[in-house]
Structures are given as C-alpha cells and as structure tokens.
Design brief:
The protein contains 19 helices and 22 strands. By secondary structure, it is an alpha+beta fold. Helix 7 crosses helix 8. The longest helix is centred in the first third of the chain and has 16 residues. The chain is elongated.
Length: 682
C-alpha cells in the first residue's frame, strides 16, 4: 500500500533518501515561523525532528518528534481528513453557477493522506505557506481565471485580485487544478500538437512578462537538475508530464509542492479525457461537458447499450474473479469519482502505442512490431534465463509457452512437432487471434504452436468499464494476466453455459476452489492496459480454454486457443487448434489434476532475445511473477519481504507499490534499469 494511505498516517525521522513532498510542506511551515533553518528537501531528518519537538513542547503535546494526527491537525495540515464541507461568499463562489447555501466538498480525489485545501478564502499571510494562492485554491499552477476554466470539473470561483489584479481560479480538488494545468499546457499553449516541446518553450508560454532565467533555474532545481532548457517533453506522456508538473508547481510555490505523484497522475488522467475529445476547451460547450453527451457508437452489429447480445462473453466465463488487494493509482471507485468518464465504443480498445507504456514490454528495447525471428529450443531456453523461469515439467516433460503479440510468420494456424518455427512479433488488438500458445517438449526439444489469444476480448473490457463508470448491470470482472510463469492444473472450466472438462486451470487443483493467486491488471479509465492502470492481487481464474467463438474469443482474462468445445458435453467435442493443442500437451481425457506450468512472454521480448544471438542477455533480464533464484531473494530482502527466492504475487504487489510511490507508474517487473530508478541494489 503506498505511503499516505495507512489508517494512521505519521511522519517521522527516517534515513530514507526518497523525498516525500508532504514532509517538505511540514519543513516549509516551520521555516515560515523561523523554527527550521535547514534546506527544505522532503527528507525527515534530525533537524526536522527537533523543530517538531519544539512545537509540541510549546503546545503542551508529548514531544515525540513525530507528526501524527494530533500534531498535524494543530499545524493545519490536511492529511488526516477525507473532506471538508464549506459554503463561500462571492467572488470565491461563482454566484452565476452556485447558490449562496451551496456546500462545496473540498478533498483529494485520491483519498486520505494526500494534500488538499479547504481554505480558498484565507487572507494571504507571508508567514504561513498554507495561504499561498497555489495551495489554498487547489490550483497548483496558480492559473488566472479564464472562461474555459469554468468548464473544468470542480470549478468553484475566484480569489480577490492581488496587487496587480490577478484573480486565481479555485477548484474543489487539487486534482481538478492539475487537470486545468494539463489542458492549459496541451490545448491552450500548444493547440493540441503532438510534437515534442522543450522546457524552454513551455517556460516562454508560462512566464508572461516575467524574466526567463528564474523559471529555467526553478525547473532545473525542482527536477534535481533534469529539466534543463533543451529537455524535450512529450506532452502526452503522463509520466514525463508529471516531472514537469512537479517542477512548475514547486517553482510557483517556492519550495517542493506537496502533491504526490498519485494526485498528479489522477489530475492528468482527467485532462486526458478532455484532450482525447480532440476539441479545444476554448470552444467547448456545457452540453459537451455533460457525460451524457458522449454516446457509445454501435460497431459491427454490437448493441450500443450494455447488452452486447450474442457476444458470448457472459455465457462461457466463470464468475470467479473478485477485486482483491488493489495496488494502484486509483481504485475503481476512486476512478469513477475522479472524472466524468466518456462513453467509449469497442473501437477504443487497443494495445499501447508505445512499448514503454505497456508493463509487458517496458524493459524491451525498440518497438518490436513486425519483426520476424526463428524460435527453436535454444531460444526458448534463453527466454527462460531472461525471466529466471523454471517451469515444472514433472507430469510428462512438457510445459506451455504463450507468445503474446506473436503469430506464425507464414499465416499458418498451427505448426506441430518442429525443431524451429518462424514467428512475427505484432501487437494484440483484443479482438483477433494475434497471439500463439504452444507446447515445449523438453525431452525431444521440439515445439508445437497454435493460433490463440492471451488478452481479454474488447467486449468484456468495455462491459467492465461501463460497470465501474456508469453502474451498468454486469457482475464479471475483466483483467489481463501479465507475462510470467504460472502454475496450471488439468481440470474443469465452469462457465455459465456449462462445464468444460479437460482445460488448464490457473492454480494447483482441478476446480475453482483451488484457483491460484496472481497480480493482474485492470483498466477503468480507458480500454488500454498500461503502466498507470490498476494492479489487483486476486484469484482471477484466468484459465486456458477454447475460444468457443468462430470469429473471435470469449475471454475476460483467460488465455484461449482457436476452436470450440460443447459446454456441458464431453471432452471429445473439442475442435480446431484447441483440440490439437490439448492432444499434443497430453491432457486429452487423461492427466486430470496434474500440473502443467505456463510461461507467458511477448513476441517483442522473444524477438529481442533472438536478436542478441549468443551475446549477453544481462540487460534483458526481467524478474516478474514466477521468477526464481537468489536474485529474487535479494530483491525481496530490499522490499522487506520474506526471502523465499520465489517472485510471488505479493512480491509483485510490493514492488508495484514502490514503483507507484517513486516513479508514478508501475510495471510489476524488476530489471537492472528499474533497480537503478528505484534506488535498489543490483
């Protein structure tokens, strides 16, 4: 769980070198009162402890040196409140939009433990940082009022004019203010252009008539020297834009701005909704800001409402998955509250355009699409080394290898008992069979592969999105199983249409009660699985079974092979590549209850390992769920976990929490590059 969401939040002395911008606010508060004379750095050290003790003693509190709820509330810090209800006088309240008895709910969209202000009408006091406009208005960029800002969610009103006439917009949540800043940068300043811009160009737009150098110096200072004048920024990469936001807001505030990365990303996610509409807020109408304006467009005969008649998803899927231990930017409930979700259609489902935005391929160099490579037994072993995988082959010397985003190069539906098969790496689209699932025979060193999918179908993704955002009636959860090595068992799939015997179940037994745990991805803000989506440690029931459908596949998380099998019927009703796969694997009417491990990697990764040839693969090494060895134990020790040398779902979840807090995104994987970014030892 990210720091700041504990039930009893405290700030205390630590030797950690990871900056906490909330601690920086505490330091700034004491510095305003001349009770802290060191550098405001967000690191809770002995001098911060001394300032806290002095304050506590002066206020007849136990001088623990710890900022707990009692001490924090006495200082005026908001981290222990869920929300504050306020009425406001004009101009702080826009009287054209809100009655005088209107209750504004000031809060953080991300939850307790994060900064927000409920004091937008406070008088500016130079000895109290909490009254700074950028803080008290929940407008971290201190943007002056404009017509388009009134149309951003959470708009409240404006401040009184300062000595030069500036009137700052007030929002209910700081995430609303971040969203407004994102819209300003993308739509207003750069007119929706997708070209990269430099820090210098951003500063020139932002500074008005103020000299340029202080801005450049400030951005450099509050990015630890990274954001210099010529630094190029992709305005549509929220991870990079978060860095710019930290620098811009901190420069405006004069010290580290107290919003955490989770809040910044939540606000930028809101701005994504506006920007993705391809319309400028300068001309947007009230009707267009109404979520009911967005309508799902019917596609390929699918019903526009949430019925999706004849899509086969509900009929064949198990009602097993449930939200477990969410480790994410936002829970589904919070995601719903953060922004007014647009109505999406099936065409909005796609694979991340940039491999760096996909957890599965963040660690792999290059694009990887449309690359041909030859898969043989030696390359399979190299892939196992890259992932530190040791798949169990005790049943019959075979294991399952799934290639996500990878098809047989000549277009064949299957190739069996081969020493080598030519593949082409590609990207899944959540509708077509753009993956391959096969059998590796360790004894004979032979390969057999079949047309398949390893991702959920877009209809299930859209249903889950509509359930979370609009409360539509659909009980099933949709997820994607990340790459890794997982234990499967020959058993029965329990779909609504009937039982399907002799499939592979995720877990160590043949029935749902033996379902295995995994950390899976869920998306609730769009129909793309990316590095900023929800991670959930749960028992998803992501089995390997036939696709059931003739033109697509029935999956809300399961791995599927082209082919069918009669629900409620005999195993012998199997058809297509599913039947061939099951026979080659060795569980057609036999080995019930026996173990068959499955390794999932991407075609992108396989192509990258193939390109290395016999060279070093150290830079490609990637630990993830199912990885084993002392190197995993070394990571677990640094994460404060029991060192059992197995990369479990709990290990993945703990790593994700650290990635969220430190980087603002999460891959659930460890690489040498990731270790360096997180400050972990190699």
């Amino acid at each position: 769980m990210p720091e700041g969401l504990e039930s009893k939040l405290i700030f205390k002395e630590t030797t950690s070198k990871n900056r906490d911008r909330r601690v920086a606010l505490i330091q700034r508060w004491f510095k305003d009162r001349q009770q802290f004379k060191s550098t405001i750095d967000g690191l809770f050290g002995p001098k911060t402890t001394a300032a806290v003790k002095k304050f506590q003693a002066a206020n007849m509190l136990d001088d623990t040196g710890i900022v707990d709820e009692v001490t924090g509330r006495m200082m005026g810090m908001p981290f222990w409140q869920a929300d504050v209800q306020r009425t406001l006088d004009t101009p702080f309240r826009d009287q054209k939009l809100f009655d005088e008895d209107h209750d504004f709910s000031f809060r953080s969209a991300v939850g307790i433990g994060y900064f927000f202000s409920s004091w937008p009408d406070a008088t500016r006091d130079s000895a109290n940082c909490l009254t700074a406009r950028a803080l008290r208005t929940n407008n971290p960029g201190a943007l002056n009022i404009s017509k388009w800002q009134k149309k951003v969610n959470g708009y409240v009103g404006r401040t009184l004019p300062d000595n030069v006439g500036n009137e700052t917009t007030i929002y209910e949540k700081p995430e609303d203010g971040v969203a407004a800043w994102g819209i300003l940068i993308r739509n207003v300043y750069f007119k929706g252009s997708k070209d990269k811009v430099t820090i210098g160009q951003i500063v020139d737009k932002y500074r008005g008539g103020i000299p340029r150098k202080p801005y450049l110096d400030g951005y450099k200072r509050f990015s630890d020297g990274e954001l210099i004048e010529d630094y190029e920024v992709d305005l549509y990469d929220n991870t990079i834009l978060t860095k710019v936001a930290v620098a811009a807001f901190s420069h405006e505030f004069g010290s580290w701005y107290p919003l955490m990365n989770e809040q910044l990303l939540a606000g930028l996610a809101v701005s994504d909704v506006y920007v993705s509409s391809a319309r400028s807020l300068l001309t947007i109408s009230e009707r267009e800001l109404d979520p009911d304006f967005y309508r799902t467009v019917p596609e390929d005969g699918d019903v526009a409402r949430d019925g999706f008649e004849d899509d086969g998803v509900e009929e064949f899927e198990e009602d097993l998955d449930a939200n477990g231990f969410l480790t994410s930017l936002m829970s589904p409930e919070t995601a719903k509250a953060v922004f007014k979700a647009p109505r999406l259609s099936l065409s909005d489902a796609h694979w991340p355009k940039d491999p760096k935005n996909a957890p599965d391929t963040w660690h792999v160099p290059g694009d990887g699409a449309d690359v041909d490579f030859d898969l043989n037994y030696d390359l399979v072993q190299r892939l196992m080394q890259v992932g530190c995988f040791e798949p169990d082959t005790s049943t019959n010397g075979k294991f399952v290898l799934a290639l996500r985003g990878c098809v047989i190069a000549d277009g064949s539906s299957e190739m069996e008992d081969k020493a080598s098969i030519k593949f082409r790496a590609t990207k899944p689209n959540h509708e077509d069979f753009l993956c391959s699932i096969g059998i590796v025979d360790n004894k004979e060193q032979r390969l057999s592969f079949y047309q398949a999918s390893t991702v959920p179908r877009r209809t299930g993704m859209l249903k889950y999105y509509n359930k979370i955002n609009f409360g539509t009636a659909w009980d099933l959860k949709c997820n994607m199983l990340p790459t890794g090595c997982y234990e499967y068992c020959v058993g029965t799939h329990y779909g609504h249409a009937g039982k399907v015997p002799y499939v592979l179940r995720l877990g160590n037994g043949p029935e749902p009660k033996y379902a295995g745990e995994a950390l899976v991805l869920r998306t609730t803000n769009d129909l793309v699985y990316g590095t900023q989506d929800i991670w959930d440690r749960t028992r998803p029931g992501d089995n390997i079974h036939p696709a059931f459908l003739s033109v697509s596949f029935s999956s809300i998380g399961c791995l599927t092979l082209h082919g069918t099998q009669a629900p409620g019927g005999k195993y012998s009703t199997a058809t297509g590549q599913w039947k061939l796969f099951r026979k080659m694997a060795g569980f057609e009417n036999k080995n019930h209850g026996k173990r068959f491990d499955a390794v999932i990697v991407t075609g992108h990764e396989a192509a990258a390992v193939a390109a290395v040839g016999g060279g070093s693969i150290d830079t490609l090494m990637c630990l993830r769920q199912g990885s084993r060895g002392e190197i995993v134990g070394h990571l677990q020790g640094q994460l404060g976990l029991k060192q059992d040398n197995v990369f479990s779902p709990l290990t993945a979840e703990t790593l994700v929490a650290l990635q969220r807090k430190t980087l603002g995104f999460a891959t659930g994987t460890w690489t040498r590059e990731m270790a360096t970014k997180l400050g972990l030892k190699l």
